[in-house]
Structures are given as C-alpha cells and as structure tokens.
Design brief:
7 strands; two-stranded antiparallel sheet; 27% strand; TolA/TonB C-terminal domain; 4 helices
C-alpha cells in the first residue's frame, strides 16, 4: 500500500517537473542562431596575421564579453592571450561583428545581461 502511495505521489509531481524545465532562462541569439552562429561569423571574418603565420604562432585567444539587455556586445576584454598579433586580431574581429543580437531573457521573459567567455582559435594549416 505504501508503495502505491509513493508511486502515485511521484506521478503527481512529474507535471510540476516538466513545467519547471520549460521555465528556463533564454540565452542571447546572434542573427537568429546561438553562440555557434557567432563562432562561425568570427571564423569567417578573422584574418590570420601574416607575420604570425611566418613565425608559426598559433593558439587560442580567450576573450570575455557581455550581451546586454539591449542586445549589444559590450565590455569586450582579453582574458588570456597567445601573442599580441593574435590577441589584437581576436579583439578586432569581435569588435567588428554586427550588433544583431537578441538579448537573453530571465524566467519571466525580461531581458537580462549575459556574460560569455569566448575563445578565438588560430591554427596553422599545413599546405
């Protein structure tokens, strides 16, 4: 009898769990997509500095920024650089991105600031 009461209680709680799962914050979107869409844009528009290519410099430049309540990319900063040539290009390409963000939303559907850590990859390709 107790087992039936426990099972019944669990079944009654399932819809509440489903409602809670739907009640999540929304991340900002870039040009109708997610952060992956922004990564594609950055990769397409970055320029590998020739001097860095010749010197064999490669690596990940870590940046951070905020997508604010108005859907603007603000507070861009370098977290961990590789080399000044690559660091400058990472900042340049992110700063040049179009401001076509839809802001994130809290559980109530209100716009919120969302912070990101964003790596920019520079990898030499052997030809």
């Amino acid at each position: 009898m107790k087992l039936h009461a426990i099972i019944l209680s669990l079944l009654l709680l399932l819809p509440l769990c489903a409602l809670h799962a739907q009640d999540k914050e929304k991340k900002p979107s870039f040009n109708g997509g997610d952060l992956n869409m922004f990564s594609v844009w950055v990769h397409k528009h970055k320029h590998y500095p020739e001097e860095a290519k010749k010197a064999g410099i490669e690596g990940r430049v870590y940046t951070a920024f905020t997508i604010n309540k108005e859907g603007k990319l603000v507070n861009l900063r370098l977290l961990r650089g590789v080399h000044p040539l690559l660091d400058e290009e990472a900042i340049r390409v992110i700063e040049s991105a179009p401001q076509i963000w839809k802001p994130g939303e809290n559980r109530k559907g209100e716009p919120i600031d969302v912070n990101y850590t964003f790596p920019v990859f520079f990898k030499l390709v052997e030809e």
